[in-house]
């Protein structure tokens, strides 16, 4: 099958959906050609669809998301880009108080079908305000759906599902993952929201990871298979909410051991939410404590040696697997 | 997939929207009657709250009726309106059904939001009302988004975006109006300047006196009018909407007015610090008798005819209270509905 990078899979999803559905439009900072967005995910969109449907905005994140909310309430399907997920703080009222709650507050009269695409994650020495993984802020907010693809295939299928969804979706793209390649079908397909994917089968323990850490978890799983004869199962929830608890629990019931990998600071993270679900649903299936391989509870530092220390990498995950197997 | 929805757009059976066709007299009498609908409704809810029959955070529009009515006299049913926490007046002026409004304040299942919104989130999406809003200023960028939708579709609809002097100091004001000005969106930003941001008088929160001067910063037309003169509001709003409909972009319309009650009915301290002489002076500028005098002086209606319109509104109000009281309460577990439009099978909230 054809290989595409994540950013090209995203671009393909955006363009094909804009051709299919005249309600879809884009807004964000530096998204028109020749820039095509800071992450090059919208190259050519302005040239193909023009200034009405590809709208260059001022540096006004509250207005970007607010305008997306207003347009969505009027029946459009806006796809907004917030360049870095750190900048969603500037739009938090519109995300949390407006987009997320409108349907509820109006007793189901309103729908807010919008997508906010935003780049999260560390690894570029971009320091504390351009490197966060704020998944938990959004998972914590009833009314939002939260999506975090790891592969080009999932990025395209999940983005198409997100744009077609009736509810507001926060779509997290890892900034170290835009050039990751993988097979992507040319045809239209959706990866349904709320459906996890077992990225690697294994009988000895379950790793739950999302976004870029899925790829690192897979690497770590190959290493322990070779070096220790441990067969780890890697579960990628793909959507953090709605969360496919059943697939995670089925895996834990099979393996009885759990490692949770996340680039978020551990305290109050999505990964801790996964742990709480495992405790609720299959505590008696566990042979040992849940092991966390998470970012340290600090802001992201600039110096690469410190950044690497704070963020989980393959050796950290390998160590977590070995620790889990000791119990 | 599980449908979390079950709500859907409300259809308002009886319309109270501004007449699109008909004589100038019809339009003027609609304005008078609608001002009375707002006055009597928001006057009554104070008493309903004080007697413990309704609860929640309630913000009275009494004294400001000429603003909502003068503006909405220029709107079509397919135009959009963005409201605020002080939103009852906008709802009624855009044509909302009093029964369903009152039922929402009574926290009943038959309310506009099925009891999920209350006063600050009361809305009728079928009338193009894109939210009352509990967050001051938040509606401004939302209005620009509605204007964006109109511009992409290429229709001649407009958006009427209402907010107060307090909201004019939020970042959302700047971001939302700058966006509308830059993109040439069909939005009229109506600053309902009632001189107080919650408890704080304007002179303590803003250096400029006429908030319309801020239009210069966005290079868009902006005027200040007497917000207690419904005809002045209507005329100025008409000019602004005509510009918006013809693709000439947004405007600011500052309407200087005054709220008779404190910030919130449920907050007994919210009238503290206001000078009784100031309140009394504004009551002398009551927009309703002022407009009634114009109607009578110009021979458009007799006092008896105006009294008759008021009686019709009184009956509508009594009916709404009876309707609300007779309506069932929502079930506690209805709180779990309407969070999402749909969720996968077996997914927990």
CATH superfamily of the largest domain in chain A: Thiamin diphosphate (ThDP)-binding fold, Pyr/PP domains
Helix content of chain A: 25-40%
Spatial sequence of strands, sheet with the most strands of chain A: 3-2-4-5-7-6-12
- Helical residue percent of chain B? 40-55%
Number of domains of chain A: 2
Q: Show unreliable segments of chain A.
A: none
- Continuous helix count of chain B: 12
Which structural category fits the helices and strands of chain A?
Answer: alpha/beta
What general outline of chain B do the C-alpha atoms trace? globular
Radius of gyration of chain A: 19 Å
Describe it:
The complex is a heterodimer of chains A (327) and B (349). With 327 residues, chain A is of the alpha/beta class. Chain A folds into 2 domains: 3-183, 3-Layer(aba) Sandwich (Rossmann fold); 197-326, Rossmann fold (3-Layer(aba) Sandwich). Chain A has helices at 6-20, 45-53, 61-73, 92-99, 102-105, 135-139, 152-164, 212-228, 245-255, 270-282, 304-310, 314-326; strands spanning 3-5, 24-28, 54-56, 77-84, 115-120, 145-147, 169-174, 181-183, 197-200, 205-209, 232-236, 239-241, 258-265, 291-295. In chain A, helix 7 links the parallel strand 6 and strand 7 (169-174). Chain B has a single domain (2-343), classed as 3-Layer(aba) Sandwich (Rossmann fold), CATH 3.40.50. Chain B contains 12 helices and 9 strands. Chain B has helices at 24-50, 65-72, 88-94, 98-105, 139-153, 171-183, 202-205, 215-218, 230-245, 276-283, 287-297, 303-326, and strands spanning 2-3, 80-82, 159-164, 187-193, 196-197, 200-201, 222-226, 251-256, 342-343. In chain B, helix 1 crosses helix 12 and helix 2 (65-72) runs parallel beside helix 3. In chain B, 54% of the residues are buried. Classes of the chains: A alpha/beta (327), B alpha/beta (349). The interface between A and B is large, with 52 and 59 residues.
């Amino acid at each position: 099958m054809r290989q595409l990078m994540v950013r090209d899979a995203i671009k393909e999803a955006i363009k094909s959906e804009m051709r299919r559905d005249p309600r879809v439009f884009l807004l964000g900072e530096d998204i028109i050609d020749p820039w095509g967005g800071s992450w090059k995910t919208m190259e050519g969109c302005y040239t193909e669809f023009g200034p009405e449907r590809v709208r260059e905005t001022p540096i006004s994140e509250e207005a970007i998301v607010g305008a997306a909310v207003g347009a969505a309430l009027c029946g459009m399907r806006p796809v907004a880009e917030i360049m870095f997920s750190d900048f969603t703080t500037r739009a938090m009222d519109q995300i949390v108080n407006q987009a997320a709650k409108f349907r509820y507050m109006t007793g189901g009269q309103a729908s807010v079908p919008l997508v906010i695409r935003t780049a999260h994650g560390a690894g570029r020495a971009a320091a504390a305000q351009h490197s966060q993984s704020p998944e938990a802020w959004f998972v914590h907010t009833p009314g939002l759906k939260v999506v975090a693809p790891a592969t080009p295939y999932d990025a395209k299928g999940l983005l198409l599902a997100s744009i077609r969804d009736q509810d507001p979706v926060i779509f997290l793209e890892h900034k170290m993952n835009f050039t990751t390649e993988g097979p992507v079908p040319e045809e239209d397909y959706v990866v349904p929201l709320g459906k996890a994917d077992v990225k690697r089968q294994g009988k000895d323990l379950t790793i739950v990871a999302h976004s870029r850490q899925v790829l690192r978890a897979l690497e770590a799983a190959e290493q322990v298979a070779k070096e220790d004869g441990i067969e780890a199962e890697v579960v990628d929830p793909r959507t953090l909410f709605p969360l496919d608890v059943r697939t995670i629990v089925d895996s834990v019931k099979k393996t009885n051991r759990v490692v949770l990998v996340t680039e978020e600071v551990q305290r109050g993270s999505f990964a801790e939410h996964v742990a709480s679900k495992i405790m609720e649903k299959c505590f008696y299936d566990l042979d040992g404590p849940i092991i966390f391989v998470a970012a340290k509870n600090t802001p992201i530092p600039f110096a690469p040696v410190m950044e690497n220390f704070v963020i989980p990498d393959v050796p950290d995950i390998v160590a977590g697997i070995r620790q889990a197997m000791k119990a | 997939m599980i449908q979390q929805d079950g709500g859907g757009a409300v259809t308002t059976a009886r319309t109270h929207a501004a007449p699109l066709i008909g004589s100038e007299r019809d339009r003027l009498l609609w304005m008078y009657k609608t001002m009375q609908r707002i006055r009597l409704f928001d006057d009554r809810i104070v008493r309903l709250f004080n007697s413990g029959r309704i609860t929640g955070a309630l913000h009275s529009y009494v004294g400001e009726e000429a603003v909502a009515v003068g503006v909405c006299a220029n709107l079509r049913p397919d135009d959009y309106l963005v409201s605020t926490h002080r939103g009852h007046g906008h709802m009624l002026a855009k044509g909302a059904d009093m029964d369903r409004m009152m039922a929402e304040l009574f926290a009943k299942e038959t309310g506009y939001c099925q009891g999920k919104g209350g006063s600050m989130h009361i809305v009728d999406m079928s009338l193009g009302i894109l939210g009352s809003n509990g967050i001051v200023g938040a509606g401004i960028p939302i209005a620009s988004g509605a204007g964006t939708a109109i511009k992409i579709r290429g229709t001649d609809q407009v958006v009427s975006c209402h907010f107060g002097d307090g909201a004019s100091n939020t970042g959302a004001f700047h971001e939302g109006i700058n966006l509308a000005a830059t993109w040439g969106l069909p939005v009229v930003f109506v600053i309902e300047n009632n001189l107080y941001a919650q408890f704080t008088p304007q002179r303590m929160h803003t250096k400029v006196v006429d908030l319309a001067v801020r239009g210069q910063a966005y290079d868009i037309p902006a005027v200040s009018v007497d917000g207690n003169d419904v005809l002045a509001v209507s005329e100025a709003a008409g000019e602004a909407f005509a510009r918006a409909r013809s693709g000439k972009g947004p405007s600011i319309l500052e309407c200087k007015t005054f709220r008779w009650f404190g910030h919130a009915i449920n907050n007994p301290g919210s009238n503290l610090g206001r000078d009784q002489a100031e309140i009394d002076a504004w009551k002398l500028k009551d927009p309703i008798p002022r407009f009634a005098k114009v109607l009578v002086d110009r021979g458009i209606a007799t006092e008896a005819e105006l009294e008759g319109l008021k009686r019709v509104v009184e009956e509508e109000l009594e009916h709404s209270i009876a309707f609300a009281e007779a309506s069932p309460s929502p079930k506690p577990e209805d709180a779990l509905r309407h969070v999402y439009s749909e969720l996968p099978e077996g997914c927990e909230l």
